């Protein structure tokens, strides 16, 4: 764990030892935080110009809320980790310094980055933030349970039908009580977005907001409906477990055999495998049988630099960012967490090869991304009110468990998001 | 009292105590359990382990947060005592035009929901450059209508003659306030002090908003932080943190319970 | 003597008036000086923001809360027709309804049994008041664990009665109740302390007289205790109402307003609108509505409730 | 109307020390029995034990003829008027008066009737709808009385019911309570520390001190024949003057060597160490040749009707003489005083017991039948 | 020692009604001046105006020779002892006594000296380190006195300082206060509603009623020559008996047609409607042939030293007779009583003014020089 009991103020630009201090707000918890802190410690060790201070600020949403309150003041952190859907908000806020400036100044070679990833954070050709921890959603399943249920543990369900079938077999009932459910999706908007995109569906109009400001929600479509229908059908059949909104609750349910399959971020893969008392399988996101698989949107988060702070600090932050994107660091980051290496050269590193050997599951996530077809759908949506939109989707998912018709739920979410967009666009 | 009545009473008392205390004791128990014991849903740890406490103090700088909480709570307590007693003194010992209207205004502030003022207050504190400082955590709470009210009721019980005797002796108003009114109202001041301390110690939303760094974060936020980081995976650690957080206030409450109960009703009702 | 009298009757009024004015003025100044810290702080942190909030409720604002465009009552009219806000209002009302009467009744029960003169009663009093020393954050974390569907004790309890597991915080039918239950527990300590103090202020002789007359326990409770306690009850009910309307911490930790907004009480909704959805105008409008809600309830309380209160 | 009997009653609050001890007394049916004593002597404790509000530590309490030690207060069929009235502040006078009646299974009309009767008897008719706080002290007192009366309990207990009233109202209430008690024939047990009340109201009174009975008897008997120095100085205002002296043969020698001869004493006392007592009104200005001794006046208080003269006797004892009328005496004057031998009380110096009481001459004060026409 | 003069003083709290009015009095340096009157008559108000705690609504207040209407309390150089002592509960006796001295710019050693002196004078030496709650009522009283004394203010005001004490302690404190005042030669203004205090302590006293002066004078003069019925019934205990009667020639006819002849009266009164007054101790049992009238006894209270006999006169008036000793009289007895003409007071029935006062025979009570040896 972090042993950070450093208590000095972070307002001064340099620490006692004369190093430039860089405050780094992040949302990495558990094993991820451990890995992050190690990386930071290594960096601080490696040179004596810059001292990076990681500060945990809660979930992505909470951290963004916090950032919003201090953006543009001296209390703003030098580096801010923001999830992918905060991109538009950050760009619009005007309180951030696009890293493009430093790229240009130094002629930094961005081609070494995985394009799929860096593109997400480039708006109108300008690189706004530094890609850092990128993930995609995957299906994680309990191989032991598969065996027990007579399913092939090496063949995970690829389509909704297969998923439903498998889930039925995996569901164990003892009288009234269900001791093991087949499947679960966290009540979190990201999974909905991904499941829609995987079928090539858009989230908002104007090509997912990349052709101009999004004005209307677009997910109330065949693709969106199929997702809600899936949840609805499975929940009704009793093969779907509602785990709420908490990532850890969901993972705990999987580890304690309450659920046999669930969707998780690739960032969770490593930790799930390490902690599960059974064999864990990882597979692609399922799609409806009739749909073409388009792929996945890049998830996770990137690093943003605050505007209006001392040049010296920005420079220091840039140095740190560059350090993070070196193949060595990325390789370690990848194997410790399951996040992608933004620098594909990292996959050539020995430790990655070693680990892939040991954890073949890690590679699945990388493959899923590289098989993704680039399109407005898989590029992901750009909306400034994304956090609010996600809440509406969550409410929609939750209302399904209460017996609201999927169509109805979808429509309500659409209307509310439209209103939010309308307010935001004026 | 008949034996039957006594037994029934004791039965009721014990049952109620068990129910009331259960969550607290439960938290204590869990804080001593190993991770697997927690997951088994046990009520009693097989062998008490202090690992969770060690982990809790490692994960989050709890000592530092405790220290912050103490600083903040003590400051707010002192501030509230001073500001409230000054105001209460004016309401009782100085007669001037509009005094009653002002008092009513004071009382009416109790009705303003803190949340209704939260956004502008946040902006104010930000403008004052008080984010991440003790100032931002304390000053906005120094004025307390409830405290003024409580002390006013107490001051009113001070015989008018004490004031008059000082007037005749030519003692200044402030000296009277400082050397007579305050010492004489010790009990009420302690009551208000305990109350202030407890409520400040337990404050949640405001510190959540105005602190972003470990420097001045209070222990409640540490708890929240711990909970978002560790929930489900390490309940034992979280509960250890809970225990660390509640022990100071519980102790304070147990010590001040009698006084608090008397002082609070006295001021609150009459 | 008459000479003095004559001399004085002429000069007194002018001197007197001056003197009196001076006296009054100096008193006013002194009074204000003592009130200055309170007034300044109230002004800055209560009255100004309250007014600011009212002002902002007529605006669309940017993400930092800076007003952009005057929209009149649009924020209000949207809120009053928005099913989400109406749901918030409903949740708030339900929450108040669940917590206030139950906290008071349970605390009263505890205060009654803890008011008896028995050996070791001090320990029980201390235990009953203990939740006053518990922070919302700590309590909520404990309850969160107790509500955990898989390992929490609440489901064990439910199973004990042969019922199926309950998704305490995930099922909209239970979430508000669950939050209310934990809130009641948290409130009891303070409510209990106040009520116990009230009970102890009741003159012992009133009960002794009743004993000699031989009236039953319930009759005493109805005819002596409750009326004599009514000022205390009135106080605690008023305070509980105000507090219930302002509940935040337990919601943030336990449910974050979900599921399906079933626990999205107004205060939480304000927080979300202001700090997550960056819609300060709407948040302000809700704050204003909340203020009036509390005001109305409190005024009603005073109008209806105080009639039944017997001050000594 | 019921007898109340206390046999060897003792009470301890802390299981260690007894606050009252060895109380033996029998209160007759219809009697007005007054309990007096200084503050803290155990009066209230005794009353509360009789009421059943306090448990009896030792001894037997009989009410009527049944042992009542463990009866519930309500089963003792008595009423009680508390020192502070214990009126229910939230109830009207009427509701207060009828408060205890509902348990007695009495019909509403009957309740009402009793209430009206009691109110009339006590002059409360016009106040029935008021709340206690709208009443004066005396009126509250009467409501408390009415509440006791309506229960028609045969025994009524009152704990210093007049202590909060001013002198005038107190005098009025004294006679009212006495009249009501006579009219209803209740057995009354009345606690007070005011000796005027005790003297004027009691059929019999009991003087308590430190939890022990000092004396029980008719008020005048106690005044005239106090059992010991405590009673002697407690009953009578200003209190009896006391001073230590030695008795040798017929000669009484005070500590300052002043002497009084007791030639007319018929009792032959064996004790030598005595305390001499004499009431202030019995210290007279000496007529010629009668002088007992000459004293130097230390203080003179002319009250109009009477004059109080203070002088020293013994070792720093101050005695008071009370003379009718207004006397023009100055501090420092030396005055010859006379004390009649028959007005002297003698007490044992060590245990305070009365050895010899002054002879009362009450015969002198009986108006001859002829005069009464 | 300073003179205090009130010229036409009036006070109104609400600018509408005056609680006191037209007060003209001059209190001489070194005088012990007592203010008496029933509750609410304005005694405290007057005292507080003198102290400067209450503003003067009209008239002039002179202290020494300067007009003091608007002086701050602290500028008036006086000390005050409050009814409830107003001791600072958190300070020790010593600190209490010295509390006011620091403002007077007095050196520490001098403060200490004064404190010790005052404490010695009042017997407080051993209590200096105690807190007020550890003191008895009388001791607290003395601390309050000491606090007033140390300021060495020439004027001392006391507002019912003894009203909370029991009878015994009160008697003791009366003489102590008087002694200290004499010793220090302070001008004392003393408020009380207890007439015994007034009678025994005052050099002069003033009787207030309803905000108006009733009478100012020496206590005995007031007792013997009350200016009106109010004073007559206020001073003296039990109070003077009063009844309305018609005076025709030498014959006084009560409302119940009883008559008294006034043959020895030298004053020729023009009024016919009078109120007759007679003090209870002057209503005597008739000796043979002296009977004034026969009355039916309505109540008898034997107090030991004396017996109070109540009977009716006029239209439902109750009169009290006070006889020394214990009388064996029963309610309902018919008793012949005698009232000496010289003991009669006559008042104007309408305005209550005294028309004729009883002739005092104080000469009778002066002890002849010879006797005093
Ligand atoms: N509940 C109690 N617990 C312990 N001691 C008590 C209790 N009640 C009274 N006492 C003690 O018992 C003694 C007698 O008290 P009690 O009240 O009978 O006195 P009292 O004669 O009524 O005095 P007062 O005239 O002051 O009312 C006192 O010393 C008192 O301190
Ligand atoms: N602050 C005040 N405001 C209005 N009226 C007052 C105030 N103080 C006294 N009074 C009224 O003035 C009158 C005289 O009051 P004051 O206190 O002087 O009486 P008192 O003679 O001292 O009576 P007591 O013997 O009861 O102390 C009373 O009728 C009282 O009600
Ligand atoms: O948990 P992460 O970091 O993979 O992020 C998941 C989503 O992309 C958040 O929006
Ligand atoms: Mg008593
Ligand atoms: Mg007064």
TrEMBL record, chain B:
Q: How does the protein's chain sit in the membrane according to the entry?
A: Multi-pass membrane protein
Q: Which UniProt keywords apply?
A: Cell membrane, Membrane, Transmembrane, Transmembrane helix, Transport
Top-rank lineage group of the source organism: Bacteria
Query: What residue intervals traverse the membrane?
Result: 7-29, 70-94, 101-119, 131-151, 176-198, 235-255
Pfam families named in the record: BPD_transp_1
Q: Report the residue ranges that make up the ABC transmembrane type-1 domain in this protein.
A: 66-256
Instruction: Name the principal localization, coarsely classed.
Output: membrane
Q: Where in the cell?
A: Cell membrane
* Similarity annotation: Belongs to the binding-protein-dependent transport system permease family.
Protein name, entry field? Sn-glycerol 3-phosphate transport system permease protein
Source organism per entry reads: Priestia iocasae
TrEMBL record, chain C:
> Pfam families given for it?
BPD_transp_1 (PF00528)
Keywords of this entry: Cell membrane, Membrane, Transmembrane, Transmembrane helix, Transport
The main location is: membrane
ABC transmembrane type-1 domain location: 89-301
Location of this chain's protein in the cell: Cell membrane
Read off the Gene3D superfamilies from this record: MetI-like
| Membrane topology qualifier | Multi-pass membrane protein
Keyword check for Cell membrane, yes or no. yes
Transmembrane segment boundaries: 28-51, 93-114, 126-146, 174-196, 226-245, 283-302
Family per record: Belongs to the binding-protein-dependent transport system permease family.
Q: What is this protein called?
A: Sn-glycerol 3-phosphate transport system permease protein
Q: Which organism is it from?
A: Priestia iocasae
**According to the entry, what is the taxonomic lineage of the organism?**
Bacteria, Bacillati, Bacillota, Bacilli, Bacillales
UniProtKB/TrEMBL annotation, chains D, E:
Q: Which InterPro entries match?
A: AAA+_ATPase, ABC_transporter-like_ATP-bd, ABC_transporter-like_CS, ABC_transpr_MalK/UgpC-like, Mo/tungstate-bd_C_term_dom, NA-bd_OB-fold, P-loop_NTPase, Transp-assoc_OB_typ2
Cross-referenced Pfam families, in alphabetical order? ABC_tran, TOBE_2
The answer, when asked if Flavoprotein is one of the entry's keywords, is no
| Keywords, in A-Z order | ATP-binding, Cell membrane, Membrane, Nucleotide-binding, Translocase, Transport
Entry's PROSITE patterns?
ABC_TRANSPORTER_1, ABC_TRANSPORTER_2
User: What sections of the sequence does the record tag as coiled-coil?
Assistant: none
Gene Ontology molecular functions: ATP binding
Query: Which Gene3D superfamilies does the entry mention?
Result: 2.40.50.100, Nucleic acid-binding proteins (2.40.50.140), P-loop containing nucleotide triphosphate hydrolases (3.40.50.300)
Q: Which residues form the ABC transporter domain?
A: 4-235
What is the protein name stated in its UniProt record? Answer: Sn-glycerol 3-phosphate transport system ATP-binding protein
| Originating organism | Priestia iocasae
